[in-house]
Structures are given as C-alpha cells and as structure tokens.
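lol forgot to send this yesterday, sorry. struct tokens for the thing we talked abt
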C-alpha cells in the first residue's frame, strides 16, 4: 500500500507532467485533464485524439508499475448536441461518474445546456448502507443521541452532494434515512410496533435537517 500523499506525488509525474509535456502538444483539438488523487477525467474536443491517448494510457501506467482499473475506465460521448437519437455509439455511454457524482447534460431555467451533477447510484447506496449500519449498531442509544448523530450524517451528505439539479436524489436520501431510523426504532420494542404517527411526533420533537442545495449556479 502507498499513502494517498505519495500516490498523489507519484501520479503528478506519471500522469500530469506527461499529459502537459507530451500528450497535449500533439493533440489536434482542445483537451483538459482533471485529477483528484488517483481518480481522473480527460476531456477531448475530437474523438480521434481521445482514442489515441486511451490507446497509450495503459502502457504509460504499466511502465511505472501501475495499471488502469478496467471496470472504471470508460470512453464516453459526453456532448450536449449529439445528433438526434445519438446514443454514443462506439463509446461506453454518454454519462460518467467522478468524485461521487454522475455527470449528465441538462437544461438550465433559461434553456442553456448545462452539466448537472447528481449523486451516483453507487454512492447513494453506500451512504444509505452507512445509515443502516449505524442505526443497527446504536439502536438502543437514547433518541436524542441518535438524532444528533443522524443529523450530522445528513448535514454532511447535503453539504457535499447539495448541487443544483440534484434535489431528487437529496430528497431520496432524506426519505430513506427516516425510514431506516423508524425501522430500527421499531426493533427496540419486543413487539416491533412503531407506527408512522409515532414517528411523525418524534420528528416534530427532533427534526432532521431538510434536503437542501448548498452549491448553486445559475445560467
């Protein structure tokens, strides 16, 4: 294993410097590289540029004892103006996941093409699994203590994933958090009875943070 700090320094030489000094000068069109630790996205104006770089990327990594993750490496047609009915043929789809978000094209309120970041399904599932695991492990703790911790989890989730256009999945998280909390509260009772009217009273006394957009942009 290698520490994230050392991995970041290593990839700066293996990937960043190589891209800027060797790859970019040979490209036909515009391009950009965005990297965070060992996750990165390369964007290209022209498909042939992308194909050429993808063809040699694995060799570059192998030279330094690294490898490209086969299931996470995808070649996508990420354009807002694909021909009508265009499905990204010849690529691996038209959206991509990066840093916990699925990136998709959408329309702003003024009708402009904008990139939307919505919570990736895998990250939403992971976040809800963490809520379930915590509630199970702490189901016998006092309700105020449970409420304080679950509120902190919710605020952290909304603080990171609260992007414009992601309201639906934020609300899904909040809804499932409440359902999970109710289910484990019911298991505190030998009869397993804890009805929604009781849960609603509890939520009035101990309200959870509401799903909210914390990172807004307008176009």
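and heres what i got for the seq, position by position
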């Amino acid at each position: 294993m290698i520490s994230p700090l050392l991995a970041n320094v290593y990839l700066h030489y293996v990937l960043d410097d190589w891209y800027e000094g060797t790859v970019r000068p040979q490209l036909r069109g515009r391009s950009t590289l965005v990297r965070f630790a060992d996750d990165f996205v390369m964007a290209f104006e022209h498909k042939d540029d992308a194909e050429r770089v993808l063809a040699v990327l694995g060799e570059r990594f192998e030279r330094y004892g690294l490898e490209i993750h086969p299931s996470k490496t995808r070649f996508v047609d990420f354009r807002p103006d694909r021909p009508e009915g265009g499905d990204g043929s010849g690529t691996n789809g038209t959206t991509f996941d990066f840093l916990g978000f699925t990136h998709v094209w959408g329309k702003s309120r003024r009708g402009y093409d904008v990139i939307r970041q919505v919570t990736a399904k895998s990250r939403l599932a992971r976040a809800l699994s963490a809520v379930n695991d915590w509630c199970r492990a702490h189901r016998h703790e006092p309700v105020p203590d449970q409420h304080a911790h679950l509120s902190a989890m919710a605020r952290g989730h909304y603080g990171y994933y609260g992007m414009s256009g992601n309201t639906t999945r934020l609300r899904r998280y909040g809804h499932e958090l409440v359902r999970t909390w109710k289910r484990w509260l019911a298991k505190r009772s030998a009869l397993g009875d804890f009805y929604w009217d009781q849960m609603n009273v509890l939520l009035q006394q101990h309200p959870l943070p509401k799903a909210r957009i914390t990172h807004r942009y307008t176009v």
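Residues 4-23 form the longest helix (20 residues). anyway ping me if u want another try
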